[in-house]
What does this fold into?
Amino acid sequence: MRFNSNLTVSGHLSMQFINNQPVILHRLNQKAVRASLGLMKFLDMFRKPCDFKYLECKEAIPDAEKKTLELMRIGFLVPENMDEEKIWLKKENRLAGKKKFQTRHFCVYYSGIEPYLARNFTDFMEEIYHLLLIKLFPPIAKRSIIYICRDRKELKSLWGDAPLPDHVKTFVTRGRILVVDPEMVVATRHGVAPVGHMTHEMAHIFLCQAKVNLPVWMTEGLCEYHSRLYNHELFLELAKLKGAHSFQQIEADARHSLFDMDDGPDESNVPYRQSESFVHYLAVISGEKKMMDIILKTGLSRDFRTVFEKEMGLSIDEAEQGWLEEMEMH
Ligand SMILES: [Zn+2]
It folds into this structure.
């Protein structure tokens, strides 16, 4: 095999435990490899697409070429121009009967609605894309996919096994596919566009494409941070009423999404609201730009807790303590 194009790390790798052993799992093809720091660091070298020929310090890595070929064979490293998510949609037979068009930043698949509605919704998403660029998110190299479902049943089939709460009208799957209820598309046309909701979902795509490694509360809190006005008084009332969780506990218990812990709608959902509150606190103590730098420095071999502590000289648990004390002062 030759290295004909730039290689990059797949956007679908995650750390898991199988039989108490840490492994890196490819969530689309289910292949798993035993995790070691050396392997994670090696994969992180390909976070930004690069040509194997010019791979930095490859002479210092034993069998670098053999390792690269093996990681390509199992789909952990892929050619830069490969569209993993489109291949997945095809394999799942989800593109049959769908109409398609492209705009500058989106590739859109839809069925069951008029073309002008799909187009109108996509223009709205283009505006949101730009809104997030202004908020320090790095541009996305590849077009994101908008997948407008025929009906609620199709939406549910993409959500997975967990129950789908009624108020969920859109979500991101496989890191780059924005799945949308047709009701949402029609609402957008009628001027009741849920800007906050869609900004939240788009922020998810930006974070996945940047291949960052964040705990679930940081991801959700950051998406909330950028998509709505924070109301500290309302949060304090809610926290008093329902009680907050520790962030370690959220990391352990939220398997599918934060809804695993509280399936209440947005306004009264404790894990969402406390994640948002904590991200606001982190942004104040670190500064918005520094917080984004820390996020973008994470990767398979460097998780958010580790990078945050190194850059800030303060652990997340200590920051959490500070956040709790600040709440008690009110
Ligand atoms: Zn979310």
Notes: The mean pLDDT is 90. Residues 216-329 form one domain. The chain has three domains: 7-81, 85-209, 216-329. The pocket of zinc ion is lined by residues 200, 204, 220, 223 (CB under 6 Å).
